[in-house]
Amino acid sequence: MSFAALRRGICGSLVAFSLAFAPLCGMSVTDTAAAAPAKDKATKSSSGKSSGGKQARSGRGGHRHAWHKHSGRHGKGSRSSRRHAPETDEADDSPAQAIPMPPVRQTAASPAPVDNGRAVVSLVASGAGSTSARIASDIASVLDSGSLRVVPIIGKGTLADLRDLGNSGLGDVALLQSDALANLPREERQALSERLSYVARLYNEEVHVLAGGDVSDLRQLAGQKVNIGPEGSSTSFTAKLIFDRLGIAPNYVRIDQATALSQLKSGDIAATVMVGGRPIKALTDFAGEGRFRLLPIPYEAALQDSYLPAKLASTDYGDLIAAGEPIPTVAVGILLATIDAPEGSPRYKRVQRFSEALFSNFQALRDPARHPKWREVNMAAKVSGWTRFRPSQDWLEGRKGIAEARSAGAVPAATPAGEVAPSGVESDDAQQKLYQEYREWKRQREKWRKQ
């Protein structure tokens, strides 16, 4: 037999020997083939007669041979005994000796405890730079306390905010225009009116129409490019409603006001419409250089069911209005609306706490540091077509007269309690006077026509 054949025979025997003993050792064939001679030296304490045999029997493979005892007595031992020596206290990082650990169970973090003592109320206001956004900021600042926090949310415009509040309950309360329901289709208007109520009617926002100096009458804008703001904005649907009711058909442009003012200067558009509480900062900062003017809006019968008469003065807008010649316009009321949640529900309780805090802190909101529109608010004013939130009505009935302060801080004696103007919003003294003047003028004109 050749040496090569002998070598193959010996190797085959060793492999067969390894395969036979692998199951007894608790090792795979791969582990048996990959195991390398141990580098650490066995000590007498780990391989001696008293402990070595026991450790060998309880080792990883569960098998040990007689020569282990021999190696324990002689210390170093042979290469074969060193390969099968029991483990020492030193860590072995080899893959063959790694012991798989059970997976760590992930424990879900416990949710933070709910502070039931503090109500968090979301207040939706349209437009980051709008009057309603500043009013919402005032409310959040004044009403903040250990029992209440108001969080303003920027909405997408009165019509979208009205539908979000009524259909999906987005927000606890929202600042909406009082003509919002009137601009909905009949079926949708009836459905939403049953689900919504109002906490209070706050202030009025005036309609501003800025045009070039060569335009002196609103009807001259027929067929011309007039910006009414982005689609869905409060200005957009109010401006379109006014033009439609007055029978004027401009060519509508829908861009943001900053771009509109720039295009007005360049002559790309004839006019732009803005709806907001006077004075509107964008107009007070507008450098018209005497080339532009605010146009009057006639308070005709077609507008009286949704809007109030109002005036814009030169003290508000500098060179956009001639000194001593106020411009007549119309205004729309802004109210705090809420979804009529079931009594005792979490939303109902949040809005109840909010409304009580609002009425109780009304005088703080009228502070000169707040928006000037707060000095025009009549918290007891009614809104036709809307039902007041029950806790708000209870508060007013229990503290009659407290919330009726007007612009000068005096309670008016001329307007009977509960009187609602034809616009659907109870007017303040100046607006009531304007309305009476208009009625007298209309009566005299009809009398003159009959003669």
Distance between the termini: 147 Å
Main CATH class of the largest domain: Alpha Beta
Provide the number of structural domains: 2
| Average pLDDT rating | 74
Based on CA atoms alone, the radius of gyration comes out at 42 Å
* Class derived from helix and strand content: alpha/beta
Under the CATH scheme, which architecture of the largest domain would be assigned? 3-Layer(aba) Sandwich
- The CATH topology of the largest domain is given as D-Maltodextrin-Binding Protein, domain 2
Task: Give the strand tally.
Answer: 10
Largest sheet: 10 strands, mixed
Question: Regions with pLDDT < 50 over 5+ consecutive residues?
Answer: 26-96, 401-431
The proportion of strand residues reads 15-25%
Name given to the CATH homologous superfamily of the largest domain: Periplasmic binding protein-like II
- Helix coverage percent of residues? 25-40%
- Helix and strand pattern: HHHHHHEHEHEHEEHEHEHEEHEHHHH
Number of helices: 17
The backbone outline, from C-alpha atoms, is elongated
